[in-house]
Amino acid sequence: MQRLRSFLIFFIPFVLFFMYFTTNNEHNSSSASHMQHDAVEIPDGYNVPSLDINVTQDLSGSWLLKVVTTNFAFAPEKAGMDTQSFNEGHAHIYVNGKKVNRLYGEFYNLDSLKKGKNEIIVTLNSNNHGALYYQGLPVQESVIVDNP
Question: Is Transmembrane one of the keywords (predicted)?
């Protein structure tokens, strides 16, 4: 009986601790949506940023993401600032609905992708991490990659 009590004293707080941190982590796979951060609506008068993405497989079998932006500059040194920005910041990369990383430049090595169809989404984000929106729509691009 004493062993069971000792086990429960350890186990119950562990489970509660685990559940708290896995459900409150903004980057866990179940909540990895660009909607996690506040939306940053681009007001009229600003050049609206856009992006074009391309995913290719290199000779080693790794997948390479290329992101070309217009009216947007990557500013890694400003990531996490409290102020909103409309034409600079960083990007968020999602593979099959799961946020995999931030992007601070033109290229990112996605490494391997699961067999079959993979949806790659890249969102442009303000320095305060808020996803950029214009006229209620996210500034993002997506592509489906079919990995045979």
Answer: yes
